[in-house]
Amino acid sequence: MKGLLLLTLSALFCWVTADVRCHSCYKVPVLGCVDRQSCLLEPGQQCLTTNVYLGKMWVFSNLRCGTPQEPCREEFNKTSHKLGLNYNTTCCSKDNCNSLAPRPTPALVPLLLTSLAGLGLWLLH
After folding, report:
1. For 51-66, what is each residue's pLDDT tens digit?
2. Helices (H), 1-125
3. How many domains does the chain have?
4. pTM of this structure
């Protein structure tokens, strides 16, 4: 019985102290994660995802590990009045729990492709 209890406690200790990793990247429309990496979460910290919107249109996301200098603080609809951007930050503490961020707004893809085509035609003239 003592052996089973000791085995259970050591398994629980290993599970609690296991390394927790977070996704780390800047995700932008069309290109996706520009510099995808993984970071090791420090004890007492959390993974974070910050999604940035212009109105209701997703602009980019920042995924990373929180640090003692910059810990994760959940915020919703935080607004930068200078740029008109809204920020939503979520925190989590399980292995790879911060999502790979939202997909681009469907209307944004045709707009970007049309803009690139127009630029290409302008450059050809």
Report:
1. 999 998 999 999 999 9
2. 2-16, 108-124
3. 1
4. 0.65
